[in-house]
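I am hoping you can look over what I have pasted underneath with an eye to the fold:
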Amino acid sequence: MKLSSGWEQSVYVLLILARLPENRTMSSIALANRLKVSPSYLKKIIKSLVDEGLLRSTPGKNGGFSLNKDLHDISFYDVFLAIEGRGRIFQSQGLLQNFIGSESGKAKRCAITSALDEIENTLVRTLSNVSLAQVADETQINYNLGYLDEWIDEMD
């Protein structure tokens, strides 16, 4: 399994927007420039974050994007759902019956499906237990974010 690049970009977008002063927004172009990513792809990602209720979109000449939830209320899993979708992570193709052959009778519960269900449940629990506030706090401890804050101030 591989998370899309959009998931990581989303996390950084949310972390940047969390540093904005109240009632401020930031454009997707500014965010794309800061992260050095494709502006068109980031717009698609941001739309997903807005649709999921994680970001707020403010239209108009001075519009842009801002957080719609506190970082304490956003988990890695919330970002995963916004970017990767709400379907099952691991979906069985139902190949067990083909594997055992029709002569063996009707297939019962597949050991592979059972294992993947357990892995998926563990992944969902793990992603749900990491809040973006935790990530922001750890990043603040490990790095000098003064330059990021100066860049945000210059965006006025």
Remarks:
- The mean pLDDT is 91.
- Strands lie at 55-58, 64-67.
